[in-house]
Task: inverse folding
């Protein structure tokens, strides 16, 4: 079985290189060898490789920058994705693609299920939604895996920013009125591999499994409580931080203006995935602790 991975150097792509390797012959491509800003060349390359599974971990992920860079975000997150889906359909290959909580407007009070109405608040969210719709419209077999608040030991993310700032400053102000579930790239990659393993060995499941799934860690937190957790754990592990969790002040999103609006409720209900694939998604704290141990000098 040949698996083609795009975005191999990103947070999720890097972990996928590890997790997908035992499933078959893995061809892992990064931006230099497969550029999503050149959709036609990308499609030709993928067609030429004839994979039976395409995993797309590449995306335009600079949420704030996308507000002023719409064309590029659209080429990467929509045009290239649409062509990948067309190629997947031609090859009868599975397309695995990652999407985001930012396809929702965050006004629902409960966690979002896969069938809830979307309503992106940002250019990034809109391009990710349009990418989803292009895949669904193509008729290819797909797993669209919506996730949230991704972090990894390798790459830039909120937790690592908090650790850096807590070493430099005397106090931090963190948004407390946005909730979601921090989800590790490691968990995303492992669950992706387990889902693919099931699909390639269980034809009854494969016949009905194509669709959207919410793939997030269980539980929920706010950015503020997440920052407190990271700082407390890091101090417990011996990090010499100037800011303790008592020195973190909760603020509202309105007090921290950024170009792209984020949903207040980013909670995604992960029951469909757990039920369909017989998997267990652990609480968000489990993998955050693992990352902090990995990062501890
Ligand atoms: P990263 O930003 O860590 O990785 C994205 C990767 O895409 C990078 O390796 C980047 O390459 C690559 N890429 C960007 N543009 C191109 C291009 N034109 N051609 C080829 N490769 C390109 O993101 P994550 O790993 O965190 O995200 C993985 C997926 O999860 C994405 O679909 C994202 O939308 C989704 N997601 C992410 C969330 C998050 O909090 N990060 C939250 C919800 C969903 P380079 O390193 O060269 O720039």
Result:
């Amino acid at each position: 079985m040949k698996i083609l991975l795009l975005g191999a150097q990103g947070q999720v792509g890097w972990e996928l290189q590890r997790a997908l390797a035992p499933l078959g012959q893995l061809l892992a491509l990064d931006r230099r060898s497969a550029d999503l800003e050149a959709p036609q060349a990308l499609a030709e390359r993928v067609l030429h490789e004839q994979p039976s599974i395409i995993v797309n971990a590449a995306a335009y992920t600079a949420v704030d920058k996308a507000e002023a860079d719409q064309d590029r975000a659209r080429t990467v997150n929509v045009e290239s994705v649409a062509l990948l889906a067309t190629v997947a359909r031609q090859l009868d290959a599975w397309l695995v693609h990652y999407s985001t909580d930012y396809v929702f407007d965050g006004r629902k009070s409960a966690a979002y299920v896969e069938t809830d109405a979307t309503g992106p608040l940002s250019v990034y969210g809109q391009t990710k939604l349009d990418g989803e719709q292009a895949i669904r419209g193509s008729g290819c077999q797909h797993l669209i895996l919506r996730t949230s608040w991704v972090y990894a030991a390798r790459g830039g993310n909120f937790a690592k920013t908090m650790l850096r700032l807590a070493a430099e400053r005397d106090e931090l102000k963190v948004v407390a009125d946005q909730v979601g579930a921090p989800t590790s790239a490691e968990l995303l990659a492992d669950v992706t591999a387990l889902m693919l393993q099931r699909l390639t060995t269980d034809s009854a499941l494969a016949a009905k499994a194509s669709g959207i799934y919410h793939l997030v860690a269980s539980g929920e937190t706010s950015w503020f409580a997440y920052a407190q957790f990271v700082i407390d754990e890091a101090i417990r592990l011996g990090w010499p931080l100037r800011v303790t969790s008592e020195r973190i002040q909760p603020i509202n999103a309105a007090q921290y203006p950024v170009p792209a609006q984020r949903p207040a409720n980013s909670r995604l209900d992960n029951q469909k995935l757990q039920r369909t694939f017989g998997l267990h998604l652990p609480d968000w704290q489990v993998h955050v602790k693992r990352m902090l141990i990995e990062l501890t000098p």
About this structure: The chain has one domain: 2-156+182-219+268-282. The mean pLDDT is 97.
